[in-house]
Amino acid sequence: MSSAASNVAAAGSGVRGDSGPGRRPPAGPGGPPRSPRVVRSASGAISVAAALVIWLALLGPVITLAMHISPGAARAALTSPGALEPLVVSVKSGAVTLAVLLVLGTPLAWLLARGRLPFPRVWEAGLLLVLLLPPLVIGLLLVFMVGPFTPVGHGLAALHLSASNTFLALVIAQVYESAPYYVLGAQAAIGSVDPRLEQQAALLGDRPWRVLRRVTLPLAGPGLAMALAVAWARAMGAFGAVIIVAYHPYGLPLQIWTTLQETGLDSALPFAVVLLVVALPLPLAAYVWSARAQRRRRG
Amino acid sequence: MLSAAVEVDRRDFPVCAELAVAPGERLALFGPSGAGKTTILEAVAGLVRPRRAQITLGGRVLTSTEPPRADVPPWRRRVGLLRQDPGLFPHLSVRANLAYGPGADSHGPELDALAARLGIEGLLDAMPARLSGGQQHRVALGRLLLARCDALLLDEPYAGLDASLRRGLTDLVRALVADRRVPSVLVAHELEEAQAFADQLAVLDHGVILQAGAPGEVVRHPASRRVAELVGYLGFVPVTGAVAGIHPERVVPGAQPGRGLVLAGPLTAVRPSGAGWEAELTVAGQPVVCRLPDRPEPDDGQLTVTALEPPLFGPDGTALGQTEQDTSMVSSCRPDGATQ
């Protein structure tokens, strides 16, 4: 670090010298450390070092997890009776949540992206409001909205359903925590497809559904997948709203919480690993796919 | 035959035009930006909904707002539209783009032959992002031709390309339109581009076709002062009871009374223009610009030139003593539907 700093100081004086009258041509490789190239390489090295520090700091929790978990403890925690049940609950509820988002969120995102709704800013502000509400507050409000003593609760009871401490309640809480991420992400993905390309496809003989299949979805696909993956990660990790409306059945975040409360940090860590292993592959796969699609388009 | 009579409401002013283009014929819609040229093309392509319209192509009714009503969707019109942005699908290779339309075989001999004619046979496996602007336009044109469009609409397709590339592409389209016998309409806001392409020129301003005819005729015999301004007349000199329009390129040096109107006045500016010179003189208080092959040599600060057969305009801006214009191919209508 200190040598880099001295390089910058020396190179800085070189820049000042070069800017005066009778300027010399820049020194080639191996020349005196006054050349602009050295300035560039020194500042480049500092930039990379700073970026590395920030990156490692952001990854700190993951690195810490890897350092603190022992294979034996993980095996013991995960093979105890009923240990995998929260995993099954989380995956099932996450899958249902994604299905709900796809079916209800995609058309909304499409309408927003294509400017088909009046007062679009009002619609977007509504989504942002849900995004910005603290999950705990969402949970509290959900109790007042769909709890057993509300009109919705009565309606659900008539269908022998309940949105309190049930699988349905878990899905509702996850939908509320993840929907804004999906809809806003999908809106950006669909909005990035030039409508003139869709017009061109139509003029070349494609009906609307074929335009969707051949142009809109392939072009918006990587962005849609990213939005869906982020929503999946949010749904998997949903905790604030879930702990209020769906304490049971336990998903992974609640399993971590109760294990932490009852038996301590060391016992909770293996479940944290499971949560990461379940939540992360989809976003990572979407990221890889998106990067490959971009590379392919660049030829 | 492409025949269209359209009235489209826009925020600023309604667009109202009639045009008829025979197979293999090329019509250029020329006018300033925002005149409504693109709106007409989009109405023909079915991309905007007209207030009133009767559009037929090769005997098929595409749009009719009168009974029996018809509104064929864009995907059944078989109308090809090429814009300034060629609109290649970025996720598909050049070959897949060319074969996008129905019935086009991506490995058939027709595609290979057309690619060779367009000069893109070596690019078939490339992605569009790798192509230059001119190459992208060739691919987009090939895609329209392979999709067997019954009409070709070109919306300022070559804006932004350099002059030689533009000329090459224009020649190519002219040849292909003649071969395929499809009616074609070009929208242009540069007169040279419209003249290089078309055998019929329609001048559009503020949503209305002001004049139509052979490209040379429209320029030499503008029907009104406004048309004259649009096609490049830069000087308007008062003569007895009228105003003479002076086109910079229809001026010769010296006094030649038998060939036109002799103009004399103080020379106010001289500057190089292309391979010749542009001179500005003041005649009867009006600036007159003329382009001359040689640097003008004023006599005591005065320059004398002759404007060849300048058109005359009355006080209301209409042409006086104009030859009869051919308005059979293209005409315009007022928003109330009456033909002008």
What is the general shape of chain B? Answer: globular
- The proportion of strand residues of chain B reads 25-35%
Proportion of residues in extended strands of chain A: under 5%
> What is the average of the pLDDT values of chain B?
88
- Give the SSE order of chain B as H and E letters: EEEHEEEEHHHEHEHEEHHEEEEEEEEEE
Largest interface, Cβ cutoff 8 Å: A-B, 22 and 28 residues
Work out the number of β strands of chain A.
0
Ends apart, CA distance between termini of chain B: 22 Å
Strand elements of chain B, count? 21
Q: What is the helix fraction of residues of chain A, given as a range?
A: over 70%
**How many strands, which pairing sense, and closed or not: the largest β-sheet of chain A?**
none
Q: Helix count of chain B?
A: 8
* Lateral strand order in the biggest sheet of chain B: 6-5-4-1-2-21
Helix/sheet category of chain A: mainly alpha
Which word captures the global form of chain A?
globular
* Share of helical residues of chain B: 10-25%
Structural overview:
- The complex is a heterodimer of chains A (299) and B (340).
- The longest helix of chain A is centred in the N-terminal third of the chain and has 33 residues, at 36-68.
- With 299 residues, chain A is mainly α.
- In chain A, 79% of the residues lie in helices and 0% in strands.
- Chain A is globular, with a radius of gyration of 27 Å.
- Chain A has helices at residues 2-18, 36-68, 71-79, 85-113, 120-132, 135-146, 151-158, 167-191, 195-203, 208-237, 240-245, 252-263, 265-279, 281-298.
- Chain A has 14 helices and no strands.
- Chain B has 340 residues and is α+β, with helices and mostly antiparallel strands.
- Chain B has 8 helices and 21 strands.
- In chain B, the strands form 4 sheets. A 6-stranded antiparallel beta sheet of chain B has the order 6-5-4-1-2-21, covered by helices on one side.
- In chain B, helix 3 runs antiparallel to helix 4.
- In chain B, 45% of the residues are buried.
- The chains are: A mainly alpha (299), B alpha+beta (340).
- The interface between A and B is medium-sized, with 22 and 28 residues.
